[in-house]
Design goal:
Layout lengths: L8 H15 L5 H16 L6 H16 L3 E5 L1 H6 L1 H11 L3 E3 L6 H13 L5 E2 L4 E2 L9 E2 L9 E5 L3 H9 L3 E5 L6 H5 L2 E3 L3 H15 L4 H9 L3 H22 L3
Length: 251
Amino acid sequence: MIPKSHPRYESLMTRELIVEGVNQGITSTQGLIAQGRGEAFDYLIGEKSTKSALKAEKVAAAKLFLAKKPVISVNGNAAALVPEELIRLSELVNAPLEVNLFHRTEERINNIIRHLRNFGARNIFTKSDSLIPGLEHERAKVDSNGIFIADVVLVPLEDGDRCKALFDMGKTVIAIDLNPLSRTSQCASVTIVDNITRALPNILKFAEELKHQEQEELRDIVREYDNKQTLSLAIHEIKKNMESFAYLLKP
């Protein structure tokens, strides 16, 4: 039992959710490594939602509302960490969920779908009858009525090559990635450099604020966004944090 007074309570609880996901057959063991890598970058951004991340999260909400056929892609880590938030966002912006895995087995796919349905998910694409062009691994398999024909795809915790392949298909790709230097971050249309446990609640909050906005007002929010600037600011924020840490360690 981890006491709430522990200074690393949130981080430790997140790790426990991932471990529990592995035990339930939802998260792959490789997902443990991905979680650790992400946590390292979370330290660098100060374990908070930065100004640039908040701006990207608001734009993400606007783009989901503007989309004609949005889809939220779900992998094992996302399903283990933020299932309720994924479902609430799915319902709010009318974006069905679709499970897509790199370390794919039918058992894991079914476990994640069952897990999401246990949390109340109703709108889930479940087929894998189409292939994303240019990919030679399991993440190429998608639903012909889902990701394959989506115009906007939210891809939490993504693989860079699939992100690029989706972008090359003409899709708007919204990525959540703590590493601003990753292929995913560089290829996405909107990159949210934030921990998924903060990013999903933030997108939900903005979606609630924007749900009654006119289409033109949403387009104005999107038009003012520059993803390269967001990535540059994220790197600058990491640099500033590192300089602050170094200053505190000065003899």
